[in-house]
Amino acid sequence: MLPPPKVTNGGVPPKPIAKGRPHIYQDHHFSITNPTSWVPYMQLMRLDRPAGFIGFYMPSILGLVYAASLAGPDAVSPTQLWTQSGFFFVINLFIRGAACTWNDNMDQDYDRQVERCRGRPIARGAVSTQQGHVFLVLQLVVMGALLHPLPQPCGAYAVAMGALYALYPFCKRFTHYPQAILGVPLSLVIVLSAYSLHIEAGDPFQDRNRTAATLALGIAEVFWTMIYDTVYAHQDLPDDVRAGVKSMAVRFRNSTKPLCTVLGVLQVILLALAGVWTQMPPVYFIVGVAGTAVALAVMIVSVDLAVPASCAQWFKLGFCFVGGCMNGGFLAVYAVRWWFG
């Protein structure tokens, strides 16, 4: 195993200089503006890494705009939609924080063998295993308090999400498809956020067609997660192979782009079916379906899987373009119906 890097500046290691690889730490503002004792815990929550947060947050917004487009502006006001978006921004800080804290604790031995991960707080010794577990419990308590007022179905989905996030770190040990496992709780939050609007008209399982559309949307989210997280995992491919970490990037390292193309085609088909089954207007198919297809194509063609910095860049850009189009399709439907009555 590689030894943890030397710790300075209150538990924050210095920024490494590695040509062609994204920086492991970007602490110059993060550590100056916060008490040094807080920094490792904020890093456990990935508050210094906002790009990954978007991956957790966007499915929540997708569920909100999906339900709002089904119910219409008479049932969901723009103010309510905006308020719920803010609520899920906060709750996802803790969902992501708890998931990353658990992951870092379970994967600390692996992390010490991977260049990009060996400086994480637990792996480098800035936070002990026990402290990590205590911090996890505190985050779960906050999450429980925030989720408690939501409608009853939300609780069951939240518990299922938590169980799958707890399982995720161990998947890297026995399967090459942890990205697929990760996609399931991200798809469940679509349903959770849809129910959070407290409206029967936006019920994603109100009838057979809506049930089929909701399932299609959830599976499309799983495929999208498999695409972007496989691209992301290519940053660590040599280290993961050496450490014995399993992933789709390792399994399909010689055919990742063809795999992502197939997954992308399936994702777009499912988005189209969701629109057909819910009788969405043309604007959805233009923005949500065609827009997603173009964004996926640009991402898959443009990313250089042999260059870690390119993988990191398209991991971020994918959320903006692909995720933005997926959400934008339903949001456009809601906006048109609100504007024209």
Structure write-up:
The protein is mostly helical. The chain has one domain (41-340). The protein has 14 helices and no strands. The N and C termini lie far apart (63 Å). The chain crosses the membrane at residues 51-69, 81-102, 122-144, 180-199, 258-277, 283-307, 319-340. It comes from Aspergillus bertholletiae. One of its GO terms (cellular component) is mitochondrial inner membrane. GO terms for molecular function: 4-hydroxybenzoate polyprenyltransferase activity.
List the helices and strands and how they pair.
Elements: H1 39-44, H2 50-71, H3 78-106, H4 108-111, H5 121-124, H6 129-147, H7 152-174, H8 178-195, H9 208-233, H10 237-243, H11 248-251, H12 256-277, H13 282-302, H14 308-340
Offer a concise description of the structure.
The chain is an all-alpha fold and 341 residues long. Helix content is 70%, strand content 0%.
Notable characteristics:
14 helices; mainly alpha; 341 residues; globular
